[in-house]
Amino acid sequence: MTRTIRHQGTILRYELMQTRRKSIELRVDMQGNVKVFAPIGMPLRSVDTFVSSKLDFIREARGKADAYRRQQAQAHPVQDGARVLLEGDVLTLRVRSGKPARLERSGDELILTAPDCGDGAVRETLRGLLIDMALNRIVERLRVYGPLVGRPYGRVTIREQKTRWGSCSSKHNLNFNWKLIQAPPQALDYVVIHELCHLIEFNHSPRFWRLVEQYQSDYKTWKSWLKKNGSTLGI
Ligand SMILES: [Zn+2]
């Protein structure tokens, strides 16, 4: 649910997720959105008080997110004729006005149909479609490698993080960065395999890396590809 608080002249909207958890956690994503994860049963007033106590942190995090978005927008212009990375290839973006929003790859071109062709709107439409594409691809690859690793996992979420590609929580929920859809497919597979292997080895021990190697023999190539090129991904 969305909640709004007023505190010392500041109005803040945040998204509240009530889940089975012991502690409260607040996150600010790269778009500057505030998400709060609170235990079911925690009074809403206490949640609001907690959020009010974090206003300085939120301001700072939003400042960083703004700077990151500005830097990304400068590095990755989104307009007709721009170059956009997808699945490891550099494609030429073609923007068409129309409904519904969709994205199609045709040879070396990436054809974006956008309902609103205003400046920021095209970027947001493209980002949303790339996130959808990333989620579909990641779920598809989890279906391939999940049964091989043979351990159950929980929720799968997609987030935008600067250079963190994936994570596996102690509750076996998996999280992936949407920008992986721009990397070569083998690099995306590497991250999927990496997180699945954490279901067996919750560490980065030699045993963990041997496990990763079992499912992707050239994983080192893709691990270093991400290290070297990861900061060039995004829009
Ligand atoms: Zn790891």
Summed up:
The protein is built from six helices and eleven strands. It is of the alpha/beta class. The chain folds into two domains: 2-75, no CATH class; 83-232, Metalloproteases ("zincins"), catalytic domain (Zincin-like).
Describe this structure in words.
- The chain is α/β, with parallel strands linked by helices.
- The strands form 3 sheets. The protein has a 4-stranded mixed β-sheet.
- The protein starts with a strand and ends in a 6-residue tail after the last helix.
- About 40% of the residues lie in helices and about 25% in strands.
- It has helices at about 45-50, 55-75, 120-150, 185-195, 205-215, 220-230, and strands at about 1-5, 10-20, 25-30, 35-40, 85, 90-95, 100-105, 110-115, 155-160, 165-170, 175.
- It folds into 2 domains: about 1-75, no CATH class; about 85-230, Zincin-like (2-Layer Sandwich), CATH 3.30.2010.
- The longest helix is centred in the middle third of the chain and has 31 residues, at about 120-150.
- Strand 10 (about 165-170) and strand 11 form a beta hairpin.
- Helix 3 (about 120-150) packs across helix 4, helix 4 (about 185-195) crosses helix 5 and helix 4 (about 185-195) crosses helix 6 (about 220-230).
- It is built from 6 helices and 11 strands.
- The protein is globular and about 55 Å long.
- The chain binds zinc ion.
- Zinc ion binds next to loops.
